[in-house]
Amino acid sequence: MDAILLQILNGLDKGSAYALIALGLTLIFGTLGVVNFAHGALFMIGAFCAVTLNKLLNLSVTTIDPERTDFLGQPLKVQTPYIENWFGPEIGAAIIDWSVPLAILFSIPVMLIVGYVMERGLIKHFYKRPHADQILVTFGLAIVLQEIVKHYYGANPIPTPAPDMFRGSLDFGVLLGFDPNAIIYPYWRLVYFLFSALIIGAVFCFLQFTTFGMVVRAGMADRQTVGLLGIDIDRRFTIMFGLAAAVAGLAGVMYTPINSPNYHMGMDFLVLSFVVVVVGGMGSLPGAVAAGFLLGILESFASMNAVKDLLPGIDQIIIYLVAIVILLTRPRGLMGRKGVMET
Fold first, then answer.
1. Of all residues in the chain, what percent carry a pLDDT higher than 90?
2. What tens digit of pLDDT does each residue of 277-304 get?
3. Where primarily located (predicted)?
4. How far apart are CA 45 and CA 266, in angstroms?
5. What contacts 146, CB < 8 A, 6 or more positions away?
6. Torsion of CA 139, 17, 12, 309, to 10 degrees
7. Pairwise CA distance, residues 278 & 272, whole Å
8. How far is CA 318 from CA 241, 258, 287, 314, in A?
9. Which residues contact 131 (CB under 8 A, 6 or more apart)?
C-alpha cells in the first residue's frame, strides 16, 4: 500500500505539470481555434524567468572585509550581493533564498507581454488557415525561442534551488498511519501539486464566475453570435491568450527546483501535453486537467521496477498506448465536444 501511495504522489506531481500546460493549450484552442505548438516554449520561458531573477538577485559587488585576510595577509576581497548591501545581510539572503516564489511576480507581466506579442504579431495571421499551417509556424517559433534561450543561457541545465525551508523531504507515511520512513516525499513536489491545484481552480473560477469569463465561454461556444451582440470578442480572446501564456509560465517557474531548466525542456513537455489534450478531448478544459492527472499517475506506475521487469520500456510508451486505446474507443477523447477538429 505504501508503494502504491508513493506512486500516486509521483503521478500527481507529473500530472500537475501536464495538466497546467494542457490547460493553457486548451484555452488557446478553445478560444482562438489555434493549435499552438509553441506552448511548450512558454513553459520554458517561465522557467528561465526564475533563472533570470535568481541571477539578478545574485549580482554582486566586490568589497573589502577588514576582519578577514587572504594567504598574503592582505584584507580579503569578498563578493557581496547588491541586495544584501541594500536591505542588510539577513533580509538580502532571505530574498535570494526565496527567488523562485518571488519569480511568480516577476514572470506574470513577462508572460502576459510575451503572449500578447506572440498572438498579435504572428498567431492572428493564421486564424483562418488550416491547422497544419498553424502547427508548422508555431513549431518553428518554438525552435526559434529555444535557440535564443540556448544562445544566452547556454546548453547546460541551470540549477535553481527551492527555498531552504522546502528542501528535504516529508515523512508523509506517518501522517497516514504508516511506519516511519515508509513514504518519504520531497516538500517542494507537494508544494508544486498544491500550487497547480490553486492555479487550475483559479482559472476555472475566473471562467465560471466572472462576467469576462462567461463572455469568453459564450464566445467559445458561438463566436459569431457573441460578436453580433456588439462585444469585442477578439480582444477578449487576445487577453485569454496572454492568460494561457501566464499559466504555462507559472508552471515553468515553480518546476525549476524539480528539474533544472534547460533550453529543450519545453519540447520535452510539449508532445506529452498534446497527447494529454487529445486524450482529454480537444477544447475541453475539464478533460485536459483530468487527462493530465490520469496519465501522470499511469506513467508513474509504469515506471515501477516490478512493472518494467515484466514489460521492459513500458514507462516510455504507456501514455501513447493509453491514448491509442482511448481514441479507438472514444474518438473525441474523454470529454471532447462534438464538431471539434471534425469535418
1. 27
2. 888 887 788 888 988 898 888 888 888 8
3. membrane
4. 8
5. 41, 44, 263, 264, 266, 267
6. 40
7. 10
8. 31, 22, 19, 6
9. 35, 341
Average pLDDT for 149-170: 90
Largest CA distance in the chain: 81
Task: Give the three cell numbers for residue 119.
Answer: 498572438
CATH number (3.30.70, 2.50.20, 2.60.40, 1.10.3470) of 2-329 reads 1.10.3470
Task: Write down the domain spans for the chain.
Answer: 2-329
Average pLDDT over residues 77-96: 86
pLDDT of residue 343: 45
Amino acid identity of residue 65, one-letter, is: D
pLDDT at 199 over 90: yes
